[in-house]
# Entry
Amino acid sequence: MRVATWNVNSIRTRIDRVVSWLDHNDIDVLAMQETKCRDEQFPAERFADAGYDVTHVGINQWNGVAIASRVGIDDVEVAFPGQPGFDKNAADSLIPAPVVESRAIAATCDGVRIWSLYVPNGRSLTDPHYDYKLEWLRVLRKEAEQWLAANPDAQIALAGDWNIAPTDEDVWSPELFVGKTHTSIAEREAFESFIESGFTDVVRPHTPGPGTYTYWDYTQLRFPRREGMRIDFVLGSPAFTERVASAGIDREERKGTGASDHAPVWVELS
# Structure
C-alpha cells in the first residue's frame, strides 16, 4: 500500500499532473492540501475516472484539503475535535465568531486512518495568525494523544503541509529565517510534541541529510538554486510506523511548467 501527501497549490490548475503522478507512481491513497476551491468546484470526476474515491472540504479559494483513495474511504471526518478557528476580522464586532477553516479532513482507507492536514502558516511572529497556528497544533496534538490512548494499535498517519522546518538542516539558510515563522522555537517545540506523544517522522530515515526539501518558493529561482525547506511530513503512529518499508520525496515533480511549489511525499507500507 502506498500513501502520499502533496500540497498541490490549486487542484484545478494541477489536476492533470496529479492524476498522471498517481498513475505513474502506483499510489493508493493521496492526502492533498491547498486545493483552493469549493466542494462543488473540486474535479472529483477526474479522480473517479482514474479509479479513486475522493472526499474534500473547501469553502472558498483558500486552503482546502482532500483525500483520494482507490482502497476505500470510510468514516470521513471534517476537522478534528475542537479545531480552532480564525477570523481575520476579529476586531469587527459584526463578525464575533471565529471561522473554522478547511484545513483538516480524515478518512479510514484499508484500515489506516489518514489525516490530510494543512497547518496554518503563521505569517509572522507578531501576527495573530502565529498564535492561531500554535493553538491549532496544541489542540491537534492533544486529540492525537487521545486517539493513541484509546487504541494503541491504531494505524494513524498525520500527513500534510506542516509549515514547520523542525531542524536547521530543514531550511537552506537558517540565518535567513531568524525571527521568522517556520523555524521559531515555539513552532519547533510544537512539532516535537507530536514525536513525544508517540508519533514518528516516518520519511526522514529514508531521506536523511541537509538539502532534502519538500518546498521551494517560486520567487528568486529558489528551486534551481536548491534553496528550499522541508515542511511536508507524514507522522505515523507506532502501528503505522511498523509497516513502513520505504519512503521518499519526489523532487522531480517540482520541475517543469505548471508545477506546485511543493513536491509529493510518499510512504510504502508492507
Notes: Residues 2-269 form a domain with the Deoxyribonuclease I; Chain A fold (CATH 3.60.10.10). The helical segments are 11-25, 44-49, 128-150, 185-196, 238-242. The CA atoms of residues 118 and 235 lie 13 Å apart.
